[in-house]
C-alpha cells in the first residue's frame, strides 16, 4: 500500500470509528481515534515518526525525514453536536518538512479527499467571493479580507472542513491567523495543493512541517486565480494584526 492510499485508508477507518462512538462525546472520540491511528501506523510504517495532537511530542521526530502528522478529530466541538458534519480526520505525511501526502476524511459527509486521487476544483462562480470563517472564533484577518474584498462570510466548523470547502467549491477562500498547529493544516494543505489550490502562509511563504515548535499559526488556502489579490490585501494589514 503506497503512502497516499495508506493516508486515505487510515483517515477513513478513524472516521468510521468516530461515527460509531459519537454518542460518547468528543473526549472519547479524540482518544479512541488517536489510539487507532497510532496502532495502525506502528503496524504499517514502523520506521516513521508521528506527531499527533493527542499524544506527547517525541523529539525523535526531528531526526527523521518522514513524519506522519495527524489530528484524530479536527472539530471536537462540532463532533459533539450531532448531526453537524463540519468536522474531520487529518492524516498527513511530511517528507523533509514538506506536506507531501495527505487525507482529510469528512465522515459526516461520507467523503475522504486525498493526495492519491486529486479532484478538480469546480469552475469559478459569479458574485462576491465567499470566505470560510470560524463560527465561534473568527480571526482578525477575516474581517480585513471581508472589508477589502466585499466577501460573503460562510461560517463553519473545523479547519479541515473549511479547507475542503474551498476544494469542493463551497467557498473561495480560507484564511486563518493565530492558534493553529501543524496537525491543523498539514493534511488539508497537502490535499489542497495536490488539487491545484493556492496554499501558503498569510504572507505567501511556504508552509514548513516537522519543526521543533509545531505552532504554525497562519494559513491561506484559496482558489489559484484569486491568490495574488488575497495576498495583496493581507500584505496591507500589519503583522501584529495578522498574527496575534
Automatic annotation (TrEMBL):
Q: Which superkingdom is the protein from? A: Bacteria
Q: Which InterPro entries match?
A: CysQ/Inositol_MonoPase (IPR050725), Inositol_monophosphatase-like (IPR000760)
Q: Does the keyword Cell division apply?
A: no
A GO molecular function held by the record:
3'(2'),5'-bisphosphate nucleotidase activity
Pfam families recorded: Inositol_P
Q: Does the keyword Nucleotide-binding apply?
A: no
Organism of derivation:
Rhodococcus globerulus
UniProt keywords (A-Z) are: Hydrolase
Look up the EC number in the record and give it.
Answer: 3.1.3.7
- Upper classification of the organism: Bacteria, Bacillati, Actinomycetota, Actinomycetes, Mycobacteriales
What is this protein's record name? 3'(2'),5'-bisphosphate nucleotidase CysQ
Amino acid at each position: 500500500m503506497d503512502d497516499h492510499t495508506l493516508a486515505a485508508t487510515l483517515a477513513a477507518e478513524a472516521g468510521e470509528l468516530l461515527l460509531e462512538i459519537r454518542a460518547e462525546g468528543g473526549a472519547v472520540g479524540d482518544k479512541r481515534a488517536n489510539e487507532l491511528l497510532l496502532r495502525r501506523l506502528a503496524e504499517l510504517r514502523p520506521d516513521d515518526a508521528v506527531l499527533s495532537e493527542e499524544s506527547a511530542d517525541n523529539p525523535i521526530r526531528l531526526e527523521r525525514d518522514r513524519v506522519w502528522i495527524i489530528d484524530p478529530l479536527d472539530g471536537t466541538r462540532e463532533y459533539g453536536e450531532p448531526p453537524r458534519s463540519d468536522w474531520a480526520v487529518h492524516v498527513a505525511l511530511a517528507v523533509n518538512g514538506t506536506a507531501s501526502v495527505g487525507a482529510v476524511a469528512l465522515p459526516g459527509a461520507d467523503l475522504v479527499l486525498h493526495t492519491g486521487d486529486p479532484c478538480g476544483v469546480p469552475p469559478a462562480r459569479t458574485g462576491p467571493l465567499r470566505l470560510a470563517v470560524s463560527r465561534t472564533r473568527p480571526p482578525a484577518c477575516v474581517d480585513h479580507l471581508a472589508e477589502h474584498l466585499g466577501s460573503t462570510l460562510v461560517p463553519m466548523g473545523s479547519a479541515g472542513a473549511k479547507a475542503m470547502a474551498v476544494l469542493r467549491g463551497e467557498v473561495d477562500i480560507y484564511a486563518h491567523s493565530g492558534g493553529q498547529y501543524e496537525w491543523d493544516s498539514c493534511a488539508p494543505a497537502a490535499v489542497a495543493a495536490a488539487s491545484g489550490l493556492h496554499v501558503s502562509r498569510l504572507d505567501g511563504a511556504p508552509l514548513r512541517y516537522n519543526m521543533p515548535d509545531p505552532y504554525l499559526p497562519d494559513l491561506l488556502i484559496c482558489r489559484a486565480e484569486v491568490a495574488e489579490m488575497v495576498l495583496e490585501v493581507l500584505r496591507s494589514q500589519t503583522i501584529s494584526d495578522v498574527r496575534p
